[in-house]
Amino acid sequence: MKNCAIVGINWGDEGKGRMVDFLTDHYDVVVRYQGGGNAGHTVINSKGRFALHLLPSGIFRSEVVNVLGNGVALDPENLWIEMQDVLSKGIELTPKNLKISDRASLLMPWHRELDGLEENRLADKKYGSTKQGIAPFYSDKYQKKTVLAGELFYPERLHAHLQDLLEWKNLTLEKVYGAEPYTMDDLYAWVNEYCEKIKPYICDTGAYLRSAQQEGKNILFEAQLGALRDLDYGIYPYTTSSNTTAAYAPIGSGLPSLQLSDVVGVVKAYSTCVGEGPFVCEMFGEEAEKLREAGEEYGAKTGRARRVGPVDLVATRYGTEVQAATKIALTKLDVLSYMEKIPVCTHYLVDGQKTDRFPFPDALDKAEPVIEYCEGWNCDIAGVRRWEDLPEAAQKYVLMIEEAIGCKIAYVSVGPERESIILR
Ligand code: GDP
Predict the structure, then answer these.
(1) Helices (DSSP H) in 307-387: which residue ranges?
(2) Annotated catalytic residue 28
(3) Could you tell me the fold of the domain covering 3-101+202-264?
(4) pLDDT digit string (tens) for 93-107?
(5) What is the mean pLDDT of the chain?
(6) At what angle do helices 134-142 and 109-122 cross, to 10 degrees?
(7) Which CATH architecture group holds 266-423?
(8) How far is the CA of 235 from the centre of ligand 1 (A)?
């Protein structure tokens, strides 16, 4: 597994951070290549419990070099706060083990504000943004109206660029939303307080990655969210504003010639979804509350209660295809141990037709889940480390998912800790 991407197959929160933390043992470099601080990876290891938003999950292994690629939404303020938190817990972060792409665009102070203003304007039609400024950020990036991290090394050009952007952005803030304009003083306060702090870590990460590749280093590519949130292949417009698919790794990392040798798709043993939009297999009431409690399904960034449901084989098969996964890591199997019978969404009913194909986003509103039940195993499996020690009913459940999605389940996770995993 020389070049391996770890990606989400579902709606995000599948446990990717936990898998990266586990697999980084075999890798020299870990790269984040898309997204921003709008989602969280929770990692639990001997150093403590960490909610990472932007930092790659390889930072806990001292010999791993971590890269934030050009495809990420680089929020200097949140990144610096996150770095402070990690540093305060004794994790080392130096320009040697953390490298930020000079081609990454900076998430500006107004992006977060614009996210909130737009969600308020949309009122009950809102998309359920995490208000971290990600949509306004990527819109501006595509309009070429952001600042590249490397511009911090060219103060004169930066000054002129900030002035142009300020004039342009204040038009939107004042005229569209009736909000307060920003001043150059505001922007320089932000530059000095946050951008200058992360500046020592900014470098030509593309050149670094190319040399790492030539030296035969093993590189892991880490994505945020999941296939169903991909801007192009997800449930538009209830997607994120970047590509969460493995196919984006070459562009967003700084290695355009990259050929991935492996894609590990992370699937949760049941479904969760944060925010608005169709979620065909959603459970409600007491049944949902029990699953939410058992899986501790509350957002790492927002604390929001996640919507929950049974494993959705239709969406998971689609996610596996879209990610071109070569292996699957199934996480949180232990959470289902309390169920006597385990519901599984095997098909959708769309306009009265039973289908196992994932439909066009608009058709999802009308889709109904077809639910079948598997036997539960009714015992604690958190301590199991070998496949043959898993109860037969649990093995059957894993094999049923494997067959339905057509991809080998190579890892079965039975707890949040690094070692709580079964290799198949
Ligand atoms: P990510 O963004 O995909 O990394 O996912 P999150 O961090 O949002 O959610 C995964 C949550 O599940 C974290 O709190 C993990 O510690 C936890 N977790 C991961 N794998 C397992 C597992 O196999 N069992 C249990 N009980 N918890 C797990």
Answers:
(1) 313-323, 361-364
(2) no
(3) Adenylosuccinate Synthetase; Chain A, domain 1 (3.40.440)
(4) 999 999 999 999 999
(5) 93
(6) 110
(7) Alpha-Beta Complex (3.90)
(8) 23
